[in-house]
Amino acid sequence: MLLGLSALHKKMIVTSDEFSATISRIIDMQRKSAFSRRLPDLVTEELVAVLSKKGTSFEFKQLFDIIHERLKKRNAASGGEEMLRLRAYEKLQHLVSRGMVKKTGKKYKGLVSLANALVEATPAK
Questions:
Q1: Which of 87, 91, 99, 119 has the highest local Cβ count within 10 Å?
Q2: pTM to 2 decimals?
């Protein structure tokens, strides 16, 4: 009977190894098909550039108008103005939640840590 348990135990180890190998293959496939961390997008770059000016604060409409003009100059304002407005608002709220932009009422002001927004998104080499 002890011999029977040993054989069963060996089979469980092989099964465990096969399971681990299968999990490793699935993780590798997900890594290959998943999005990799990218450089900051142009909307974030423009938000950082505009909000980094000392002593300035903007309401979102004013901020978006500036960013939209700058992106048009770079020929990067594709996808429609409303979609761009939505993306810019989402990125701005993300910067607020990370503590890089201060929101007071309806006004947004860049903080000193805003300069790190572009550095943190750059992947390590």
A1: 91
A2: 0.63
